[in-house]
Amino acid sequence: MSRISSLFNNGDPFVSLMNKCPVLSTPVDWKETPEAHVFIADIPGLKKEDVKVEIDEDRVLHLRGVRKVEQVYEENEKWHRVERKRGKFARTFRLPENAKVDDVKASVENGVLTVTVAKQEVKKPEAKVIEIEEK
Question: Which residues form the SHSP domain (predicted)?
């Protein structure tokens, strides 16, 4: 057995890395509409109780959850491949200034988590003109 294949337990290197990396195992799309920032995450097989959505004081959106092991491994069974991700996952996104962090909605439907963060108008500070004195 080569050293490289031993790193991946004789499996597909991409699948092995995907299972170890929460970023690769939980894909998220982020789109901005005129009214909101919308985050769409694939979380197949999870219920709303398995997922936690939070925004911290630094305006960071956290999507966290746990994919539980479903199968019981019987002694007389031989598994040829285990590719579906199990365990914890976490994704974080720094929200822009125009995100209204006190107006957030989240829902799960058909294995897709949708988090909608309303937008607010951000007023740009006006430039203050400083008079230059002659000395």
Answer: 19-135
pLDDT tens track for 25-55: 689 999 999 999 999 999 988 889 999 999 9
Question: How far is 20 from 75, CA to CA, in rounded Å?
Answer: 25
| CATH architecture for segment(s) 27-69+84-119 | Sandwich (2.60)
CA distance 71 to 86: 11
Length of the chain: 135
Q: Which residue ranges make up each domain of the chain?
A: 27-69+84-119
Cβ–Cβ under 8 Å, residues 35 and 99: no
In 3-state terms, what secondary structure has residue 62?
strand
Query: pLDDT of 43-97, one tens digit each?
Result: 988 889 999 999 999 999 999 998 877 666 777 888 788 777 778 899 999 999 9
3 state SS of 88? strand
Q: Exposed, middle or buried, 115 (CB in 10 Å: 0-12/13-18/19+)?
A: buried
Radius of gyration, alpha carbons of the chain: 22
> Tell me, what DSSP letter sits at residue 76?
T
Alpha-carbon distance of 67 to 53, in angstroms, equals 15
